[in-house]
Design a protein that fits this description.
7-stranded antiparallel beta sheet; alpha+beta; 8 helices; globular; Jelly Rolls
Length: about 350
């Protein structure tokens, strides 16, 4: 039985298959910057789901003795061994999703609900917060996130008759590689054309489309909007900001820098590695997701085989893993950035 198998096999560094989503605004950024080969039936790929535990799509292990096992089954049968003591919820779904987003056209203007809005809306809506890491951007690329000037619900709703009028209320940022945006629930946002973004998010697919800029799809139809649900979800607090300012300390070699705000439902650290990086999963009492951004790496854990991780991929280290070492091809470039995602205390 699967349960017996999972109890007998120690959890080693796990890689998962990637699910690509073909969308009208997708491009070839995954091939160009991440050396990926996209299946023809999944092109143009706008999203790459790296870590996912959803009823419609579940990641499956692609390396080692557990190859073919779904992330959902790992969670179901390994529980605390996988997630750690910090996790206080049930074991029905993995708490975060990991994606790459390649936008060659402007995305729609969107919002995600918080828990209170979900209760009002129903429809199995789930709260959702996100962290965006701008990996690549072409000159002139934009990110829309949070408010430029104060706005009320009535003013915002009236402006939707002419979508271009909405922009005067919203903060438009010139995006640059390395920029960080924390998309809190209720934050009005859009990814502009020319951005390749790494995204960490709550495990939710609830997205409400405010406007799609009057565009037509390949069949000549307008995409469905969710104006009523959006108006119940938008946070009109002008003081909240999505952009996370860049600090000089962030670029100190081998020093973890926390990218997320204090009240986040997940934590994300960035590290610029110039030598091997060593840590211990038991210190944080949480699983750790390690994403290598600039080069391939190998992961070595105690009494486990070394695991090779290609550039741009994410490896899952179980909470029970213990000590581990990351080794990067630093002879190719001065330093390699990686991101580490884990649960905060009292999660």
């Amino acid at each position: 039985m699967l349960q017996n198998k999972l109890q007998q096999i120690p959890l080693y560094p796990l890689l998962f298959d990637v699910h690509y989503q073909s969308v009208l605004w997708g491009g070839n950024g995954f091939e160009t910057y991440l050396n990926r080969k996209i299946p023809a039936d999944q092109a143009p790929a706008g999203e790459a789901w790296e870590i996912c535990d959803r009823p419609e799509i579940s990641s499956h292990v692609e390396n080692g003795a557990l190859k073919g096992i779904s992330l959902h089954d790992l969670l179901l049968f390994c529980g605390e061994r996988l997630l750690g003591k910090r996790y206080k919820g049930n074991y029905r779904k993995f708490p975060v999703m990991i994606k790459w987003i390649d936008a060659t056209r402007d995305n729609s203007l969107q919002v995600h609900p918080d828990e209170q809005a979900c209760r009002k809306i129903g429809q199995n809506a789930e709260p959702k917060s996100e962290l965006w890491y701008v990996y690549q951007s072409v000159p002139g690329s934009k990110i829309i996130a949070s408010w430029q000037q104060e706005c009320t619900k009535s003013l915002f709703f009236a402006s939707l008759k002419h979508p271009e009028n909405v922009l005067k209320y919203l903060k438009t940022h010139d995006s640059k590689p390395g920029d960080i945006f924390q998309i809190y629930p209720g934050c009005v946002h859009s990814i502009g054309a020319g951005n390749l973004i790494f995204e960490i998010q709550e495990n939710s697919v609830t997205t409400f489309r405010i406007t799609d800029w009057n565009r037509l799809d390949e069949q000549g139809n307008k995409r469905k909007l969710h104006v009523e649900e959006s108006m119940q979800s938008i946070d009109f607090d002008f003081t909240k900001k999505a952009y996370r300012s860049l600090m000089a300390e962030r670029h100190l070699p081998n020093k973890p820098y926390l990218l997320t705000a204090a009240n986040s439902v997940f934590c994300v650290e960035e590290v610029l590695a110039t030598t091997d990086f060593e840590a211990d999963t038991t210190t944080l009492e949480s699983f750790q997701l390690i994403t290598t951004l600039d080069a391939s790496m190998t992961v070595q854990c105690e009494n486990r085989e070394e695991v090779y991780v290609p550039q741009g991929r994410t490896v899952l280290l179980a909470a029970e893993q213990g000590k581990f070492r990351l080794h990067f091809d630093t002879h190719l470039i001065p330093g390699c950035r990686f991101l580490r995602t884990f649960l905060p205390e009292n999660s």
